[in-house]
Each structure stands twice: as C-alpha cells, then as structure tokens.
Amino acid sequence: MFRRAAVEHLLQNLLLPLLIFSKLSESSSEHECKCVLFNVTSGNFQSPEFPAPLEGVPCLFYHFQAPPDHIIRLTFDVFQLPPRIGVCSSSIMLYDHSIDGLIEFGERADFEFCGKEISSGRQFFSKEQHFLLQITSAKEASRGFRGSFLAIPKKNFTSDAVEMAECSYRVEKQKAIIYSPQYPYYYPSKVNCTYHIPQRKGFQIVINSIVMDIGRDAILQIFESVEGKFEKRLIEMVTSVQKSIYVSSTSSLLIYFSAGNNDVERAVGFVIELQYSNAVWSQSPEAASDCQLNVNSENFKEGQLSSDKIGRYTSSSLPTKCQIVLQGYPNEKISVKFTHFNLYVPDNKNVTKRCTEVDNLSADVRVGSRLSRIDEWCGKRTPPNLMSSSNLLQLEYNTKSSKAIRESTNDDIGFRLEYKFHTDWNMGNMKAKVDKRKECRFSFNSSEHTNGKLWSANYPGLYPRNVYCEYIFHGRNDQVVHIHFEYFDIEGFNQCDETTQSDYILFSNYQTHDRTNRRFCGKTAPKGPILSESNYFRMIFSTNDIFDATGFYAHYQFITQEKSQISRVKLTISSSQTPFSVIFFVILFSLFFVIF
Ligand SMILES: *[C@@H]1O[C@H](CO)[C@@H](O)[C@H](O)[C@H]1NC(C)=O
Ligand SMILES: *[C@@H]1O[C@H](CO)[C@@H](O)[C@H](O)[C@H]1NC(C)=O
Ligand SMILES: *[C@@H]1O[C@H](CO)[C@@H](O)[C@H](O)[C@H]1NC(C)=O
Ligand SMILES: *[C@@H]1O[C@H](CO)[C@@H](O)[C@H](O)[C@H]1NC(C)=O
Ligand SMILES: *[C@@H]1O[C@H](CO)[C@@H](O)[C@H](O)[C@H]1NC(C)=O
Ligand SMILES: *[C@@H]1O[C@H](CO)[C@@H](O)[C@H](O)[C@H]1NC(C)=O
C-alpha cells in the first residue's frame, strides 16, 4: 500500500515542482533537467498535468528503477504530441539500455517519439534495471501521454532448458518455453544459439511460436535428426517475413538461431513453446553412433557401453571429442561404473600429473541448469563410480591419438562401463526406510534393527553433488544411538561452513534445524562414536555443487540408556581438551566391552 501511495504522491506533486522548474529554467542553464524517480515495482506515469496539455517543459526525466534482476516494462495507453515535421518539436526520448540509471551528456536516445507515433498498448522493455524517459516539450500544446510501468523478474524470460555451453541449450522438460537471447529486449548481434530437443519414444515434439520477429539479418533453422545419428534434415527455415511457426516431429529437433546484425533493426527475436505430446511411435532406427551417443532410459534402465562403440565411423586421425550423453526422466539419477579403463598414452608422455595433451575422459553432471565438471582421467587412472543427483550425466572422450594407433596396440585401449538409471539412491542394502516425500531421507527404527550400517550415496565412489540427505534414528523411549565411522572422506576444511564451500556432516538431537552444532568434514572421522542425547537423532549429509569426495561408511547401534549413563554429552562440545570428554571416552570404552 505504502509503495503505491508513494508513486501517486510523486505524481500529484509533480505539478508543483514543475511550475517552479519552468520559472527557474528561464533564467538558468538549458542543460539542467529535473528527474523524477519511480523506484516502486509498479504504477502509472503520465505527462505533467495530464490530461491538461503538455507544453513548456524544456527537459524532464522519469527514471524507472526496478529491483536487482528485474527489468522495466513501460506500456503506453495514451500518446499524443505535436506531429513530426522533419523533426519533433516536442518529444519523448527513451533510454532503455542504461546499466546504472545514468546517461552521458549528449548521449543518443534509443528512441525518439512525437505525434501519435506510439500506438495505445505499445510496450517497451529495458535491458537492465533502469529505464529513462526524457520529456522535451516546446510551447505548442498537445495532449501528452499516459501509461503504466512494471518491474518484471528477469527469470520470467529464462529458457526452460539446460545451458550446455554458451547459448547452447538442451530441453529436458515435457513442456518448455524458449526465448531468444536477452528477450524481451532486442537480441544481441552476431550470436549463434542452438536448442536441442531430444526425441522421446512414444512422443512427438510439437513446436509453436508465441512471438516470431527475427529481423532481416537473422536466420532460424529447424533440423530433424535421429538421436545417435550425425545427419540432419532441414525441415523449416524461418526468415524475417515469417511471423509464426508450427512444426511437429517424432525425431529429435535442433533449432539453430544465427543472429546477424541487429543493432539498427532491434528485432526482439522469438518465444517458442514446445511440448512432447503422445504419438504413435514409428520404429526408431538402430542408433548408429558417430561422435555423440545419446542414451536415454526409455527402453532400458541399465546397460553397457564401450569406447569401441563411439566414433566408429570417424575414420579421421585428427583429434576427436566424442560425447556420451546419459539422460533419464526428470526423477531419475544416473550411476556409471567403469569396468575397464586404459586410455592411450604415448611412450614419451608422463601422465602422473595431468591429462593435457593425451587422450582423456571427462565427466559432467547437471546441477541446476548447468553442467558441472566432476573430473578428468587419463592413462590407467580409472574413474571412481559416478552418480549424478540429477537426470543428466555426460562423458566426453577426447582423443589425440589416431584410431589406427589405438587399435594397433595390444593393450586393450579404451574403456568399458556399466550405467544404470534409477529413481532411488540405490541404497536398498542399508535396510533403512526411505521417506518417499523427501528427496533424500532414510530412517532407522530400533524395533526393526538394533544395529546396522549406513553410508553415503554411491559409496565408495564419489558422492553426488547438491544433495541434502538425512539419516534419522528412532529408538525406543529408553534408547540412545551411537554412530561409529569406519571411513570418512568429506570434501571440506576448517569449520566446514559456507565460506569454505565445504560439504559436511552434522548431527542434531532435534527435528528442527539447529545451527549450533558442529559440522564435520575432511578426511579424519569424528573421534570416537557420536552419541545421541535421546531416542531421536538426525544426521545430515549435505554436499554442494563443487568438488567431491568418496563419502563415509559407518555403523550404528541403539543402546538402552541405563547401560550408557552418557546421554548428556552434548555434541556442541567440540574441544577435546575438556576433562568432561575424557571421562566420556573412558565410559564409552567400558561401554564397548559391555556391548560387544
Ligand atoms: C525510493 O527512493 C527514495 C528516495 O531516494 C528512498 O527513500 C526509498 O527508500 C526508495 N524506495 C525503494 C523501494 O527503493
Ligand atoms: C512472472 O512470473 C511469475 C511466476 O511465474 C508470474 O506470476 C508473473 O505473472 C510473471 N510476470 C509477468 C509480467 O509476466
Ligand atoms: C555464427 O554462425 C555464422 C554462420 O555459421 C558464422 O559465420 C559466425 O562466425 C558465427 N558467430 C559466432 C559468434 O560464432
Ligand atoms: C613421471 O613423473 C613422476 C613424478 O614427476 C616420476 O616419479 C616418474 O618416474 C615419471 N615417469 C616417467 C615414465 O617419466
Ligand atoms: C583432454 O584432451 C584434450 C585434447 O587433447 C585437451 O584439449 C584437454 O586439455 C585435455 N583435458 C585436460 C583436463 O587436460
Ligand atoms: C518403529 O517400528 C515400530 C514397529 O514396526 C512401529 O510401531 C513404530 O511406529 C516405528 N517408529 C517410527 C518412529 O517409525
């Protein structure tokens, strides 16, 4: 309420300062401009004194300022200034690209309008947070203008696709909208963008334009291709005259957008809606591979791959970059296990340190909407088991050696792997109850097992990125639980907090979030067993989107409290110097003898 009131206040009072201003301006410098700031997220604007005629305003700015990561939209409702006779006598000038709300003295405006040049309903968007509107009006009377403004989050115009590289996207959703770069602002000149929409068995892809204004110098092409095949067929070529498209296909589609020069024409580009809709599937041809092998989980949830299968038809002896893209349904995760790994290393190279200049294999997983590199491997350094926490895992096989060399050695050069798509964390052996409502929550109930093992997802391989897993222990009323780590490798250091971008383990005696407890990370396991205060205990394992390690392996045991006497040891005590914890360990060790 207050915000809106503030704008109206500004507008109502506009009249007064203006009168003062026009008097002042007669005697003062011509370049002195008054500026009205509109720093709320929505409202109306109008020419001073509207609907009274606009006249005698030598220079006035309206500065629309949106919150960070928002842009401004201006919508005109009325616009009527004296007509343009060669030049505009009175006009408004729009500056839509200012990054800081300032413009240079004498800077050319992005638009200048007078007469009835802005039709009712016409919209303008700023590139960034700021939009400046300058009013210059001579003595000649006119009606003036009126409109509304709105701050819109930039993310409203972010394509529903994963950015694989600079302006190269892969669509993963059942239904998605893709926007040309910088939309709704005009697209930058000379960019090339690619949008890959992979085929899905039983579905056809339907593409429909919502906005199509690609400009004279730009080309938008749509190709059809079969996953795993190199050839592609042009099915649609859009030029500036075409204002809409509709395409459907059961094959994969590739949309190429090549921008050309757009600095003068300022075309906005496109908004395309695409959707997978049910279709009768025509038998997919055998996926013969070239240098990109796409594996999805439509038909098989697991399988094997070998480096022999990729690049089979690339006879070239030049370096190649072949990709294996494993993509599951949105709720699936992917695990990869290497069963053979021996990449070619020339005799004169030493790969103990780095993989540059030799054949290598890298792995990336999708984290959010970006690909995140896990690591690179070469020589005989076999990658650990890999698991994604999302539905996309990509391997890239870079070869510098020629195919002939690789095939002529007797060393079984290349790699073989097994992959698996799964919706759970693949931790059935842990015998924990999995909470289906939570992304990653395991519960251990002492009525079912009084002791057992627990470990991190994918142990002993690298744990996945960006996971938040809870291990919950429910004992009987008189029980506590202790957890003893046999293996511990959590990427992080110092206090394991956000400033060090560490992954961590944290224990809590409460169901609610408690920040006071100590975090554990690094390669040294917590000393001695960790004990709960009561029959409820919660262990949190949280990982971020950079760097990984191999996780943990621990065993737990529920013990009845009479035996233990130690239920009061608080986890917040982190200093091992206190006599209290010495006592604690002594009791604990005697306890071990009682139990085992
Ligand atoms: C708008 O600007 C005024 C004056 O500069 C300032 O006092 C106010 O806090 C600003 N409001 C917002 C929402 O930024
Ligand atoms: C921006 O997106 C939000 C959430 O999807 C929606 O509610 C809002 O109407 C959108 N704003 C505009 C101006 O499109
Ligand atoms: C975009 O593609 C065109 C034509 O294929 C090419 O000439 C141009 O160099 C490319 N631009 C960029 C920035 O890659
Ligand atoms: C490779 O480098 C390591 C360490 O620099 C060294 O110990 C090893 O002997 C080298 N091997 C060869 C084959 O040069
Ligand atoms: C992997 O090999 C390619 C091609 O030889 C090379 O460009 C790249 O730098 C290598 N990667 C690493 C991490 O060394
Ligand atoms: C633990 O298991 C017992 C027996 O199956 C059950 O009665 C109890 O509700 C469970 N406790 C929790 C917290 O799930």
Automatic annotation (TrEMBL):
Transmembrane segments: 578-595
Pfam families: CUB (PF00431)
Keyword Transmembrane: yes
Residue ranges of every copy of the CUB domain listed in the record: 33-152, 167-277, 291-422, 440-559
Record has Ribonucleoprotein as a keyword: no
Keywords: Disulfide bond, Membrane, Signal, Transmembrane, Transmembrane helix
Signal peptide start and end residues: 1-29
Gene Ontology annotations for the cellular component aspect, listed alphabetically: plasma membrane
Protein name: CUB domain-containing protein
Organism: Caenorhabditis nigoni
